[in-house]
Design brief:
This protein is of the alpha/beta class and about 150 residues long. Helices cover about 35% and strands about 20% of the residues. It has five helices and five strands. Strands 2-1-3-4-5 form a five-stranded mixed beta sheet. The protein starts with 6 loop residues before the first helix and ends with a helix.
């Protein structure tokens, strides 16, 4: 039996598809406020913006901070299509995101369940709840297709 994806993850997957269409790696991110309303969203835009920090997560966190009028996103959730890298995981901790939901694991570049496992480090002062695998099949298919098209 298949269940519909939560709206924020559905939106993140759509943003990932748009990023791929624009030539960026297909990653999308959505921030929801404590009531579950979408307050920020972005797709990867590193190539489009000529900015190595323009990861979907970073851009969505910046938008959410502006929308909330604070750098601390207490009670907010981040929905992202790929396991965050070390840069993004650090920003998630600094933003005080309550819950991180991500679709596909990233054994090569991920920093949550793989690599440095940033949230388990004693120097990490905030650890969000982490839920993985939501929309994993679709996110993995997007990534596989994107890189296959470039070979």
């Amino acid at each position: 039996m298949s269940f519909p994806l939560p709206e924020p993850m559905r939106r993140a997957l759509d943003l990932a598809a748009a990023a791929a269409a624009a030539g960026d790696v297909p990653v999308g991110a959505v921030v929801t406020d404590p009531d579950g309303r979408i307050i920020a969203e972005a797709g990867n835009a590193m190539r489009a913006a000529d900015d190595p920090t323009a990861h979907a997560e970073m851009m969505a966190l910046r938008q959410a901070g502006a929308a909330m009028g604070t750098s601390r996103l207490d009670g907010c959730s981040l929905w992202v299509t790929l396991e965050p890298c070390a840069m993004c995981a650090g920003a998630i901790a600094l933003a005080r995101i309550a819950t991180l939901h991500f679709a596909a694991e990233d054994p090569k570049g991920g920093a949550v369940l793989h690599g440095p496992r940033l949230f388990t480090q004693p120097t990490c002062h905030h650890r969000p709840d982490v839920m993985s695998g939501i929309g994993e099949d679709e996110a993995a298919a997007q990534l596989k297709q994107f890189f296959s098209d470039r070979r």
